[in-house]
Design a protein that fits this description.
Strand content: 35-45%
Number of helices: 3
Structural class: alpha+beta
Largest sheet: 5 strands, mixed
Length: 134
């Protein structure tokens, strides 16, 4: 497969995340994640199977919302929110993805619980323009 541009990589990552996390289409998601996918996470078992098995174990109410996305070379960083996965609070995440030949090859994440308005010292929402509702 020919080398992809940063813009193509951003589009691929957004489509991959939507396909797996929101649509739960595992067969289609396999086209985006490399069979040799490397996962660097405290929350996810190794490889593509580890990621897919985690998503399969979560409630169908799981939702991923992408915010800002940037790319340089083969790296893409997506700032987003995971909600509806059974935890008491949403997660705000910065997902760093290394692309290779049009596939998600490697992944690191930085995750933080989303603060409510009462918890926020700055009184500024962590994602979007309003605080999450209970």
């Amino acid at each position: 497969m020919p080398k992809t541009t940063p813009e193509q990589n951003k589009a691929l990552v957004l489509k991959a995340f939507d396909t797996l996390f929101n649509q739960r289409d595992y067969a289609a998601a396999e086209r985006f994640w490399s069979p040799d996918y490397i996962q660097h996470s405290a929350h996810i078992e190794p490889g593509r199977d580890g990621l897919f098995n985690l998503i399969k174990s979560l409630p169908a109410t799981l939702k991923y919302e992408a915010g800002a996305i940037v790319a340089e070379g083969d790296f893409v960083i997506v700032y987003g929110r995971f909600s509806g996965f059974g935890a008491p609070v949403n997660w705000i995440a910065a997902d760093v993805v290394r692309m290779q030949d049009g596939s998600l090859e490697e992944h690191w994440d930085v995750i933080q619980d989303e603060a409510t308005e009462e918890q926020s010292k700055s009184k500024a929402p962590m994602f979007g323009d309003r605080f999450p509702t209970s």
